[in-house]
Write a structure and sequence with these properties.
InterPro entries: AAA+_ATPase (IPR003593), AAA_lid_NorR (IPR058031), CheY-like_superfamily (IPR011006), Homeodomain-like_sf (IPR009057), HTH_Fis (IPR002197), P-loop_NTPase (IPR027417), Sig_transdc_resp-reg_receiver (IPR001789), Sigma_54_int (IPR002078). Keywords: ATP-binding, DNA-binding, Nucleotide-binding, Phosphoprotein, Transcription, Transcription regulation. The structure is a single chain. The chain is α/β, with parallel strands linked by helices. It is built from 20 helices and 16 strands. The strands form 5 sheets. It has a 5-stranded parallel sheet with strand order 2-1-3-4-5, with helices on both faces. Helix 7 crosses helix 8, helix 11 crosses helix 13 and helix 14 packs across helix 16. It is flat. 34% of the residues are buried. The protein binds adenosine-5'-triphosphate (ATP) and magnesium ion. Magnesium ion (MG) binds next to helix 8. Magnesium ion binds next to helix 8.
Length: 485
Amino acid sequence: MQSDGFWTVLVVDDEAQVRASLTRCLEEDYRVLTAASAREALEILNREEVDLVLCDQRMPDMTGVEFFREARVSHPEVIRVLITGYTDPDDIIRSINEAAIYQFVSKPWQPDHLLLLIKRALESRELARRHRYLSRELKFSDDVLRRQNDHMVKLLQDTYEFDKLVFASDKMVEVCNLARQAAATDLPVLIQGETGTGKELMARAVHFFSARKAFPFLAQNCGALPDELLHSELFGHKRGAFTGAISDRLGLFPAADGGTVFLDEISEVSPSFQVSLLRFLQEGEVKPLGSDQTRHCNVRIIAASNRPLKELVEQKKFRQDLYYRLRGFELNIPPLRERVEDIPVLAEHAAKKYAKSINRNIAGISNEVLQRLKLYPFPGNVRELENEMRRMVAVAEDGEILSVKHMSPELAKLLPAKPDNGRAAFLLEKGTLKEKVEALEMHLVSQSLLKHKWNYSRAARELGISRVGLANKIKRYKLDKSGAQ
Ligand SMILES: Nc1ncnc2c1ncn2[C@@H]1O[C@H](COP(=O)(O)OP(=O)(O)OP(=O)(O)O)[C@@H](O)[C@H]1O
Ligand SMILES: [Mg+2]
């Protein structure tokens, strides 16, 4: 939801006329965005905060159900409503299951019906969200239920195992060593880096490596909220503290007692709220809105910013005293283009993750793809790399090696500066059988080494050859860790 209370609806239809009439119907009550294709819609979803998508079934690039199947994985929170001429109930049930579609609207659609349906859908999602929040409040305020929370933390840690930090570059080794030191202390941590570099993932890692790991890790984005709401989210409020405060609310700081609070986009906090945060950091006490009682909370703060705070301090846009307080430890995550050694492992990690999520087998990633990925500057950093890999996995056939033909055009057209000595020749049409077989062998050996992080024994075992045999092949094909492999 936008901070002004407006919900955002994305209308996806290839016909301009339909988009215009749907926009007319909705724009009085909602912020309406439009897309003329599924591809464009996915781009908007990556860029904008969208609450509900209204999509036509028949589109040239993919069907509405296919689009929703993809959006379900990439943006699970968004409500999916399909507009269709379908009448076959079996078809409808199958699609509902496949793409978790909230509702169908049959053509020709009626404005009143459509508006009511959208209103209900958004209301029930909001209720579910509040329910989750209230359950969280209950859990943290009730000792018996708190034990159940240990179970949740365990589940969370298991999820975290899956979402692990992956890296190979010396720069990241350095940052992670510092993060480990930070984890051993109770000092605040400031994580800085461009968008998509993994700041939130790093914050979670610090929490789960710390003695606080059995307690909650709660995150708050400070960017989108006005002061009063942010205050109520973090410090809590008493019933009646302001219009709409119908019950007491436990803030995130008391809810995370014993654990960690992650404050994302800290640079966006207003000067007056900076004072409240500073006070909390100095005294560790919270006073809910509308209450005159303070309560002590033992939480560690991890803050993140994609704008360098030091510069904002110099421009007098961020308080210097708060900056110094926050940077007990300062972790600066370099942009992906400055640590290209991480690209192959991250690409593989992401490809595996998405392949698993859609039940597809991927045989590996071709050298040509890795070379192109290494040339691309990735302004959206790891998130953008993940999106590219998600796309590649989605368009590849089961059991295929991800190759240039699966890449998005912008990346596929990048040409490696030096020729590849025919390394990926088996992917090309030309060459003798011997050359092709050798290229394939080199490719498979390098993939196996990549997969096992250059552990000779494991790669040799997987390939069914001896360690000496593997060493010979590495020499013969001049494979090395820093190369395109
Ligand atoms: N080193 C890494 N290993 C594995 N996955 C990573 C790594 N770094 C980032 N990611 C993945 O990239 C995506 C973006 O990461 P994250 O949300 O932590 O970035 P961020 O810096 O907080 O971005 P933003 O500034 O836009 O909020 C996530 O899906 C995350 O899992
Ligand atoms: Mg983030």
